[in-house]
TrEMBL record:
It comes from Abyssicoccus albus. The lineage of its organism: Bacteria, Bacillati, Bacillota, Bacilli, Bacillales. PANTHER family: 1-ACYL-SN-GLYCEROL-3-PHOSPHATE ACYLTRANSFERASE, 1-ACYL-SN-GLYCEROL-3-PHOSPHATE ACYLTRANSFERASE-RELATED. SUPFAM superfamilies: Glycerol-3-phosphate (1)-acyltransferase. This is 1-acyl-sn-glycerol-3-phosphate acyltransferase. Pathway: Lipid metabolism.
Length: 241
């Protein structure tokens, strides 16, 4: 097993070492005219950072089925099992995306600038107004062509099964009229959360991307019904992995 301090050092250290590239990435962005190519270029460094974390921790990712690349913006909806979910998904999902993160992450050295570049969004769970602001930002990002990843459970399950999805979690997809892509992730809690004192243990994380759900579904079903349906789809596949 590895101590969490070593992985934490890798996370912050890697971000710090790559921080000098931030201005270079921003500068080069300006000369890439194609939106998709510019977006992909922006996330090259975060992908390298995520893969470095997984390699340090001895985490391997097993993908079930295909991982399509969507040129149009989508809302990725995943269950949230552990702290390793984000590096696993950044390293695995082909399409660049930002994600909704708790506000505390803004305080982590070096990470915020990169997360801003990826069009991540922050939310203060204790402040209702923050939720409204997050929703507006998410809709704007989707309308601007940037995909988003959200964890509708709101917090890590730590391997204790999938928790109920929050009501209205998919409202941004409804308002922005984008496809919902359910993503199943299993095994990250075995890497960290289930271990004594959160020690890091090598292991395999499994990923499966489900068929996209078109925004026209909101014409037939309520927001809550769609949220429940996506929750059940992810739960069913999670139990099969």
């Amino acid at each position: 097993m590895l101590h969490t301090a070593k992985v934490l050092f890798t996370i912050i250290g890697a971000a710090g070492l790559k921080s000098f590239k931030l201005n270079e990435v921003k500068r080069k962005q300006q000369y890439i005219e194609d939106f998709h190519e510019r977006n992909r270029f922006t996330q090259l460094q975060p992908k390298l950072w995520a893969r470095n974390i997984l390699n340090t921790a001895g985490v391997k990712v097993k993908v079930h089925g295909d991982l399509p690349y969507y040129k149009e913006p989508v809302l990725y909806v995943a269950n949230h099992e552990g702290n390793f979910d984000i590096p696993v998904l950044i390293s695995t999902i082909l399409q660049p995306f930002g994600f909704v993160s708790k506000q505390e992450v803004e305080k982590i050295p070096f990470l915020k600038d990169w997360m801003d570049l990826m069009h991540c969004i922050y939310i203060d769970r204790k402040d209702r107004r923050s939720g409204v602001k997050m929703l507006k930002s998410a809709i704007q990002n989707l309308n601007d062509g940037y995909s988003i990843l959200i964890f509708p459970e709101g917090t890590r399950s730590k391997g204790e099964g999938i928790q109920e999805f929050k009501a209205g979690a998919l409202k941004m997809a409804q308002k922005a009229k984008v496809n919902i892509v359910p993503v199943v992730i299993k095994g990250t809690s075995e890497i960290m959360e289930k271990n004594d004192h959160n020690m890091i243990k090598e292991g395999i994380v499994q990923i499966k991307m489900l068929e996209p759900i078109e925004p026209s579904i909101f014409k037939e079903q309520s927001l809550q019904d769609v949220t429940t349906m996506v929750e059940h789809k992810i739960k069913n596949e999670y139990e099969k992995l």
